[in-house]
Amino acid sequence: MDDKRSEKQKIAGANANQKQLDAATKAHNRQKDINEKNAISENEKAVREAKKTERELNNKLRNISQNINTNQIQGTRARQVISNFKNRKSIDSSFNSKISKLFTKKQIAVQKETTARMNIMNIKAKKKGKNSMNAMRTLLRHMLRIKQRQTEEWIPEDSHLNLYYHDEKYYTHEEFLEIQNDVYDSIINDKAKDVNNRGDKRNKKDVKKYSDLRSSYKRKVLTIADSDKELTDLINKLETGDGRELNSENETIKQDIELMRKKLRENVENSEIPTGRKAQKYKIIDSFIQHRDTHIKKKNYKRVCNSERENVVSEVSFKIPHNNKNLGIDQKEYLDSVKSFFEKAPFLKNHKILAGCTHFDESNRIGLSEEEVTGANVHLVMDCKSSENNRYQWRKSMIDFARSQQEKLNNEFDMDFNIKAKGYDLTEKEICHVGQLLQLSFYKHVQLDLFLKKSIKLKFVAEEDRNNSTYILACLEQELAIQDRLSSRYNMQHEQNLKEQQKLNEIKQEMAQEKAKLKAAEENLKQKDKALEEANKEIEKLAQQVTTQQEKEKDLDKSIDEKSKQKKELSSDILSKVGQKDQLQQDIERLENKQLDQAIKKVDAWMDTVIKSKYKNDDDTDGSGGFGTLTTIAAARAIDTLEENQPELGEKIKTTAVKFEGENIVKENLKISNNLKNEKNDKNTSSKFKR
Q1: Strands, E, within 387-540: which ranges?
Q2: Residue of 230, 238, 301, 302 lying closest to 267 (CA atoms)
Q3: What burial class does residue 411 get, using C-beta atoms within 10 Å of its C-beta: 0-12 exposed, 13-18 middle, 19+ buried?
Q4: Contacts of 539 (CB under 8 A, 6+ apart)
Q5: Are 268 and 281 in contact (CB under 8 A)?
Q6: How does pLDDT run across 459-514, given as a tens digit for each residue?
Q7: What is the secondary structure of 370-432 as a DSSP string?
Q8: Torsions phi, psi for 678 (to 5 deg)
Q9: CA 124 to CA 134: how far, in whole Å?
Q10: What is the mean pLDDT of the segment spanning 576-597?
Q11: Residues 6+ apart with CB under 8 A from 613
């Protein structure tokens, strides 16, 4: 056995050596092919590594955003972007899948696919800084093509392709030049008038004045309460929650006000201070109630613009990326589709469109025809003042719109948005979801209203692309001046030229490197050829060893054949034993069936005897004689035998017999229960307990 094992090990070793030689030969040939190619593969590898690194960085950024406290971040826009990454739901796959099914259902072949960017920027009532009135002036100068800033924001030679909208009319660029300053002035002056409203300014001063007085006198009356817990709780109740906004004449708290006044006066009256001081204390109580009522009245004054944080106008922009090329959609089709959404959307339709435009003059290069233009974009300036009540309530309208669409969009796109049904003090997460619901509803509208008719499929940017650092940078830079944006059109062109020049230089360097690599490869091939010759000699030696081993394997095969014959003989013997086992099993089954048949026949005979005994009286025929007794005993023994071998069947027949006995009048010698083993034991046991 040891010799055979040793021989097998030698054969296995020889085979392994053969495989190694084959592998070495293949590796040599592969290396030869690789060396003959240029260095493109190395460049591709470097690109893959760079992309992998970028993905890892983007994933880290995504993970960081999930755990970051946005309140600690400086910069409103940065906080908004981080909040968006932290709280947004993944809606891209659901929307994209739904639109694909729509094309299939309508049997429309997709001609093109495109992404887009829809953004809303709110201008507030403050005078300076980001999103201020000054920012609105800059925004309008760009949108209405009044004045460019430090860099080329658009191509003036292509501005004739633009379309404008104002006061329910459309204008070409040439037509709009005549009124562009009037449109600009009308928007600026109207909002400046509201922001600088004198009544609002006066009311702000009054609210602050009486708020300070109210707080001051509250502290004084708490001193008068003198740690009286019931009275202190009553004062705090009136100064917190809903009660804080109700004046002393309101029926809801009128009794509480009077009770507070009464208890405070009692505290003063029962104190030991001089009479003159008491009069001052009484006056403090009345002054507190008076200042409280005045403060509530001033707060309820309806200002035109509540504060500097109030949104006065909102810019809506919808842009097609340059890399999606021209989609074959004209200026009016773009503008009408975007405009119609805000004209029909619940709550948002109460806000007037002050101006709108489609820009076709922001392509990557000058002089393109209308059919070649890229980077088409639409702008709307929305009035944040609602026509429903003449109040600035853009934020409220946005939240109300999101709530009105939430259930429908959840069902349609299998989402789980859950913005609370009441109130406008929303969490950071809920505000993010309001924006997503607006975006989802808007994308659905323009897909059905515009892109579907052109056989174009609108897609959301995939989640992994949203995590891309370039995309994040673009989000952060939206409110910067164009010349300051790293991702602006101007910088895009400049960067593209630099990249092309750099690529040309790299190609030249690569060509020089390739020549050096080819020389090195030729030298390497010579060395490989020598190694191959030595390997071939080794192969010949191993081939001789293999021949010897093959002869030994033949001897082993003969031995294996003999073992196989012995195995067959053993198998035949085993099969014979199995056959005998099967025969025994069949005999057992026949015996069990015979026992069942005998039990049934004997129980039937006993039942016949019992039935006859009811109608005949002579001993031989009515069962009271020896024949009936024997029949009963035979039936009982058959049941006992069956129960021993087949308990379930025996139990069933026994139960039937005992039940039959109980249902009929049976003579004592015919009672089968007296002769059954288990029944006898039960009776003996019960009789013992009876004694």
Answers
A1: 456-459
A2: 230
A3: exposed
A4: 18, 21
A5: yes
A6: 998 766 555 555 555 555 554 544 444 455 555 555 666 676 777 778 778 778 87
A7: TTT--S-EEEEEEEEEETTTS-B-HHHHHHHHHHHHHHHHHHHHT------SS-S---HHHHH
A8: -65, -40
A9: 10
A10: 66
A11: 622, 623, 624, 628, 666, 667, 670
**Backbone phi, then psi, for 133, in 5-degree steps?**
-60, -35
Amino acid identity of 474?
A
Between 77 and 652, name the one with better pLDDT.
Answer: 652
Q: What distance in Å separates the CA atoms of residue 184 and residue 357, rounded to the nearest whole number?
A: 13
Cβ pair 218, 239 in contact under 8 A: yes
d(CA 400, CA 394): 10
DSSP state of 606: H
Query: Bridge-partner residues for 458, per DSSP?
Result: 114
CB 62 within 8 A of CB 467: yes
Q: Give dist(CA 23, CA 121) in Å, integer.
A: 64
Here the tokens at position 280 are 């001052």
User: Of the given ranges (80-89, 285-294, 603-612), which has the lowest mean pLDDT?
Assistant: 80-89
Domain boundaries of the chain, sorted by first residue: 112-169+317-459, 198-299, 607-690
Question: Given the structure tokens 């050829």, which residue do they identify?
Answer: 529
Percentage helix, strand, coil, to 5, in the chain? 70, 10, 25
**Of 22-26, 64-68, 525-529, which range is least confident?**
64-68
The helix/strand/coil state of 247 is: coil
Tokens of 483: 């010349």
Q: Are 288 and 218 in contact (CB under 8 A)?
A: yes
**Angstrom distance (rounded) from CA 251 to CA 233:** 20
Residue 311 in 3-state DSSP? strand
Report the alpha-carbon distance of residue 646 to residue 652 in Å, rounded. Answer: 10
- Which residue matches tokens 């021993």? 644
Backbone angles phi, psi at 422, to 5 degrees: -130, 155
Cα 229 from chain centroid?
Answer: 51
Beta-sheet strands, E only, within 183-325? 311-319
Separation CA 581–CA 583 (nearest Å): 5
* 235, 238, 264, 280, 354 from 231: Cα distances, Å: 6, 11, 8, 20, 55
Which among 115, 169, 109 is positioned nearest to 446, based on CA atoms?
Answer: 115
335 neighbors 163 (Cβ within 8 angstroms): yes
The DSSP call for residue 623 is S
Q: Which element (helix H / strand E) includes 159?
A: none
Distance CA 241, CA 626 (A): 103
CA–CA gap between residue 457 and residue 99 (Å, rounded): 7
Residue-wise pLDDT for 390-401, tens only, equals 899 999 999 999
CB 606 within 8 A of CB 657: yes
User: Which amino acid type is present at position 377?
Assistant: N
Cα separation, 528 vs 675, in Å, equals 102
> Percentage of the chain with pLDDT > 90?
31
Task: Record the tokens describing residue 214, joined without a space.
Answer: 């109210």
What are the phi and psi torsion angles at 258 (to 5°)? -65, -40
Spatial contact of 103 and 110, defined as CB atoms under 8 Å apart: yes
Residue 367 has pLDDT above 70, yes or no: yes
Separation CA 466–CA 475 (nearest Å): 10
Question: Which tokens go with 187?
Answer: 């928007």
- CA 576 to chain CA centroid, Å, is 66
How many whole angstroms from its chain centre is CA 663? 72
At residue 320, φ and ψ (nearest 5 deg) are -100, 120
**Strand 117-124 relative to strand 163-166, pairing:** unpaired
